[in-house]
Design a protein that fits this description.
The protein has about 120 residues and is of the alpha/beta class. The protein contains four helices and five strands, in the order βαβαβαβαβ. It has a five-stranded parallel β-sheet with strand order 4-3-2-1-5, sandwiched between helices. About 30% of the residues are buried.
Length: about 120
């Protein structure tokens, strides 16, 4: 980790197909520029890490699709963390998640915020 690592925090979930793509576009662009990225999802955003959920999100004209963005992010070494209380509220368990996603807590988020540049959506 360096002072140039990026943390993207997003609270956007399946309810807003257009807006939920933006954090992934920024994250993938950052990884292309060799900037390490961790994405931390909160609120309904945690649902995006459910197995099979990305494929159910509406594909928008002239926009990249979420499954491709998600697969690219993970394959380029991006890290996905999820809000523990948000997952608990939705009965999301670790076994429900895509490979590479993990449930975290407030203390972990604070550590991430203190060690990285932060962008929120």
């Amino acid at each position: 980790m360096t002072e140039n690592d990026l943390l993207i925090i997003s609270t956007i979930g399946p309810e807003n197909p257009e807006k939920l793509l933006m954090p992934f576009i920024v994250a993938n662009t950052s990884l292309t520029l060799d900037i390490p990225v961790t994405m931390f999802f909160m609120s309904s955003g945690v649902e995006l890490a459910l197995k099979g959920k990305a494929e159910t999100i509406e594909k928008l004209n002239d926009m990249p699709d979420l499954p491709s963005l998600l697969q690219t992010f993970v394959s380029q070494g991006g890290i996905i963390k999820l809000c523990g209380p948000c997952c608990n509220h939705r009965n999301i368990k670790p076994e429900d998640l895509i490979e590479g996603a993990e449930i975290g807590g407030a203390a972990g988020l604070v550590d991430l915020v203190m060690e990285r540049k932060v962008l929120t959506f």
